[in-house]
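Reviewers of the previous submission asked for a worked example of the structure-prediction workflow described in the proposal, so we include one complete record here. The input consisted solely of the amino acid sequence. No template or homolog information was supplied to the procedure at any stage.
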Amino acid sequence: MSTIAITGSASGMGAATRTRLEKAGHSVIGIDIRDADIIADLGTVPGRRAAIDAVRKRTANRLDGLVVCAGVGPQVEPWSTIVSINYFGAQVLLEGLRDALAAGTQPAAVAVASNSASLPGVDTPIVEACLAGDEEEARRLALTFSGHHAYAGSKLALTRWVRRNAPGPAWAGAGIRLNAVAPGVVMTPLLQGGLDHPVFGDAIRNFKVPLGNYGDPDQIAAMIAFLLGPDGSFCCGSMIFVDGGTDAMLRPDNF
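From that input alone, the workflow returned the following structure tokens.
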């Protein structure tokens, strides 16, 4: 079966994805700041390099799948940390392990974004700084906006990076399928941290979900597994909302 690396594997959607893939018989390499096969702080340049090097060593530079799921919520301070983990911690690993994926069998990668990326007002200069690869500027700008803008902006930048690169020669041209999922309100430790926050808690509770309930991490894991596997073999550069209908409710004419 396939060998798949997952960041953020210790909890939430990353842990659910690991469990689902291992039950299907795949070999999974978990990457997280704790309780993982590879311990690394993806919010730092040395941590990302260590994670990339460790994956290469464990797989002999041949990887079949990659899921970049590690992330923190808008309540995390300083807000500069949010863009470092959510965008650069994902994009750098995708780019750094691309050649290992190119050597894999039917390789695929999935980035975990967010439906908050489509909310009004989140397309700030943070997004362009991320896409320009200027982490220092993105971190500086995050401190001048808010945790919400840092979070949603980092996820918007990640989505755009996936969309811009997925059809190109380095990804689709090399036989690697790259896609993204956009979860909505999913009951994870990240969400609980937001619910417990004195500022963000009420905003999250007031965020409408047409299906009437919060999502479960395994529901997101199921979509990730689909995109990694043969049933998703014609998906390339897709951004799939798994959010109980929230995006459709807020943006019925956008798709």
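Residues 3-186+216-240 form a domain with the Rossmann fold fold (CATH 3.40.50.720). We consider this example representative of the routine output the project will generate in years two and three.
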